[in-house]
Write a structure and sequence with these properties.
The chain has one helix spanning 2-17; strands spanning 32-39, 58-63, 70-76, 79-86, 96-101, 107-112, 118-121, 129-135, 138-144. The chain has 151 residues and is mainly beta. The chain has a single domain, classed as Immunoglobulin-like (Sandwich), CATH 2.60.40. The strands form two sheets. The chain has a five-stranded mixed beta sheet, with no helix packed on it. Strands 4-3-6-7 form a four-stranded antiparallel beta sheet, with no helix packed on it.
């Protein structure tokens, strides 16, 4: 008799676990990501001829390539400072940008769509230009040493 009771109990537990009438399915978009803190350059960064136009007291966050109607949230020290749906402008390669006062920034949080919040620390104020790129399911965050050129 105890085998029958255990079998009935097992059946009740498993059927209640798979009853989806009242359950809410949550799906989140997740991304692989990489953070390049010591990025020196690529073909867009040959020299630093525009450095004189960039303030050392500001943090420049540039949402660059690969975004199409992507929901971007930026947090500064835990507070939301940027919350927009953006798409990359193909001729220039930039979707949007924001400028912050670097003296007040301890950390930056980046969320793309419903993905996880990526926390970034400002470890070198000389690298005060941050580029955020999306390539399929990969997010790349670049701390630029030199000013990138968008043509």
């Amino acid at each position: 008799m105890s085998k029958t009771k255990n079998l009935i109990l097992f059946f009740l537990i498993t059927t209640s676990c798979f009853d989806n009438k009242n359950s809410k399915i949550v799906t989140e978009k997740t991304y692989d990501f990489e953070v390049l803190y010591l990025y020196q350059g690529n073909e867009r960064i040959i020299d630093d001829k525009y450095r004189h136009k960039v303030s050392n007291d500001s943090l420049y966050i540039i949402i660059e390539t690969g975004f199409k109607e992507s929901h971007i949230i930026l947090e500064e020290n835990g507070e939301t400072v940027f919350d927009k749906i953006v798409s990359t402008e193909l001729s220039q390669g930039v979707a949007d940008r924001t400028i912050r006062d670097i003296k007040n920034v301890k950390n930056i949080g980046v969320r793309i769509d419903s993905g996880p919040l990526i926390f970034l620390e400002i470890i070198n104020i000389d690298n005060n230009i941050i580029g955020i790129n999306k390539n399929y399911d990969k997010i790349q965050v670049v701390f630029y040493k030199k000013v990138p050129i968008y043509e």
